Amino acid sequence: MKIKLTLSLLPSILVVFITCADAFQAKILPSEIRPGDVFSIKITGIKTAGPPAAVLKNKQFNFNSCGEGCFIALGAVDVETRPGIYRIKLHLGKKMLNLKLVVRRINFPTLFLTLPEDKVTLSPEDMKRVEREAERLKTIWKTASDRLWEGSFMLPLENDISTIFGTKRIINRKKISIHKGTDMRGKEGEEVKASNRGRVVLAEELFFGGNTIILDHGHGIFTIYMHLSAFNVKPEDVVSRGEIVGFVGSTGRSSGPHLHFGVKVTETSADPVSLVKLKL
Ligand SMILES: [Zn+2]
């Protein structure tokens, strides 16, 4: 009997490993991603070995059970990731194999904005507040908690997207900021829904985000809802997928009512649309 057989199939990259004791399949979906995208690794047919372990650029994946002999993990690559082929080291029992992650090139749109100078240059007090809030958020992204998400993620509103993730904004011809979220159109007071089951880890006013809600879905996955007019939840509440968490507004640095919807996957800001598209 052959010890090892590796197959690559299109459209998804599928690796089949067969040994006398065990046969399993490892699949990365989607087969090609863009910088800032979320992807899944699904391993099926595990008979004897325990849960798999995988690493990409020193970051560990958190595998969840998806049925008998099935494990799934979510990962994301940073928006600044250079196009190319990356190696994910997968360990299963005593076996180790490399999975290929294909990151293709994308030209993100550029937006030129002119704003009053006092909206661009912050006062020393505001600067301190922004730094304090950034530190606090960093601590939140590092929280290790149990999995709460169940099934696919959803968009919090059914409206159109106004500014996509990754848009490069050049403010007053000098300051460059990359948009690390998805802006969705919305009317003041419109209901904003939880993208998936999760625990409220923040529900308060931030300098840039205004009234902000952060949901911890477990295993390093968070969703962020900004510029809300009001909250419908409080910290520590556990909400189910589709539950109303707040209402559209224009609080914080916002030029009109809309929702800034963000996603963090293992401390990486990722495109929420890519997360929502995954069939989980
Ligand atoms: Zn935004």
Walk me through what this model shows.
The protein has 280 residues and is mainly beta. The protein has helices at residues 117-120, 124-141, 272-277, and strands at 13-18, 23-29, 32-33, 38-44, 53-56, 59-60, 64-65, 71-76, 84-92, 95-103, 110-113, 161-163, 168-171, 175-178, 182-185, 191-193, 198-206, 210-218, 221-228, 230-231, 238-239, 244-247, 258-265, 268-270. The protein has 2 domains: 13-103, Immunoglobulin-like, CATH 2.60.40; 127-160 and 183-274, Glucose Permease (Domain IIA), CATH 2.70.70. Helices cover 10% and strands 43% of the residues. It starts with 12 loop residues before the first strand and ends with a helix. Mean pLDDT is 90; it is low at 1-12. The structure holds zinc ion. Zinc ion (ZN) binds at residues 163, 179, 181, 183, 260.
Task: Indicate the percent of residues in helices.
Answer: 10-25%
Total of helices: 3
Under the CATH scheme, which architecture of the largest domain would be assigned? Distorted Sandwich
Q: Specify the CATH class of the largest domain.
A: Mainly Beta
Strand residues, percent: 35-45%
Low-confidence stretches: 1-12
Helices, strands, pairings?
Blueprint: E1 13-18, E2 23-29, E3 32-33, E4 38-44, E5 53-56, E6 59-60, E7 64-65, E8 71-76, E9 84-92, E10 95-103, E11 110-113, H1 117-120, H2 124-141, E12 161-163, E13 168-171, E14 175-178, E15 182-185, E16 191-193, E17 198-206, E18 210-218, E19 221-228, E20 230-231, E21 238-239, E22 244-247, E23 258-265, E24 268-270, H3 272-277
Zinc ion binds next to loops.
